[in-house]
User: Fold this.
Amino acid sequence: MRPRLALGAAVALSVVGAVWAVGADAPGGEHRASARPIVLAAASLTEVLRRIEPEASYSFGSSSSLAQQIRRGAPVDVYLSASPAYTRALHREQVLRKPMAFATNSLVVIVSRSNPAKIRSVFDLARRPKLKLVVAGPKVPIGLYTREVLERLGLLRVLEKTVSREPDVKGIVGKVALGQADAGFVYVTDAAPVASRVRAIAIPARAQPNVVYELAIATEPRDPAAARAFVSGVLGPDGRRELRAARFGLP
Assistant:
């Protein structure tokens, strides 16, 4: 690990230690996880989190819907969101402990490998009158980020060509990969696992939104030791290596 990354990891882990010190209730200071942590996480983290910690009990979905589930009392030890809006709101509501940024991402347009609409750039979306576009709803992080990209490029009218609104980014990937839509906006990390079925088209840097992922431990986790161990895995060297390999950025 390069010195700068090592320093960043050390700082992140020291912050985790400070957070754990508040409310740590394992007898005798014991921090060993005794059970699988219950983890609610953004759908775009599906593959990488399972590589970082395969033994956790996961529920993946849109960050917004997971936040609502948590508000309604769904059991959770750790929550990971594709937008700081949800972790910070739940922290203000005293449902979560202090959130920590752990990854970044960027958007691309994906088309099927056959690409019947002959899309070569994001601007072609406005030039294809019969385009079938698939996006996420406006309350889902990827949907919000998509609208931010289109607004910056002066292409909001492209949304009129939407044929399906998906509940999360995996739904968009599936529709395009199966040829049920011509194009969709996804995270670059979601395009990589299906590279044999879709092609990613870059979006100009000036239009990229600031996509930051945050995680937070529940104020009253079911298993504090398991929650702490999971967060250590994500923020530690192995977790950072897996995130980088999956094409996430490291804040």
Summary: The mean pLDDT is 89. The longest helix spans residues 3-21.
